[in-house]
Specification:
The protein contains no helices and ten strands. By secondary structure, the chain is mainly β.
């Protein structure tokens, strides 16, 4: 079996991109590692060739039995963006105190926003989130 990961595009505008992500454990598979949530070469309209090209502006999330980290894919080591703690829910609007969390991977990165989890292998673990990014 595999975990259920459902990603639905909510908005793909000229400056902003928004998705809803739902993750549900299958009760036995390993945690997600570097699972791509947004790939600017595939998901954006029009696609983005220049990198880095995205800034994380806001994330609304609910975590039940699982924790996760969001990261920007990078050739040598991923650049951490934000941690989503186990058994919490929150609305983090990074525009309130900074211009957002920019992909800092420079030209060696792929531009992908990825997620890795801890605890998803346990039955009954769920996560849902709405992610807003700005196209730079």
């Amino acid at each position: 079996m595999t975990h259920k990961v459902k990603i639905d595009k909510i908005l793909d505008g000229p400056r902003n991109y928004q998705i809803h992500v739902y993750i549900e454990s299958d009760g036995g598979s390993a945690d997600l590692v570097d699972y791509t949530l947004i790939d600017p070469h595939v998901d954006l309209d029009p696609t983005k060739d220049a990198l880095p090209c995205l800034t994380l502006e806001r994330i609304q999330f609910s975590m039940s039995g699982v924790s996760a980290k969001l990261e920007w894919d990078y050739l040598t080591s991923d650049n951490g963006a934000w941690v989503l703690p186990k058994d919490t829910n929150s609305d983090m609007n990074f525009q309130q105190f900074c211009a957002g969390i920019r992909d800092r991977s420079e030209s060696d990165g792929s531009g992908k926003l990825q997620i890795s989890t801890v605890g998803l292998s346990a039955a009954g673990s769920f996560a849902s989130m709405i992610i807003n990014v700005r196209k730079d």
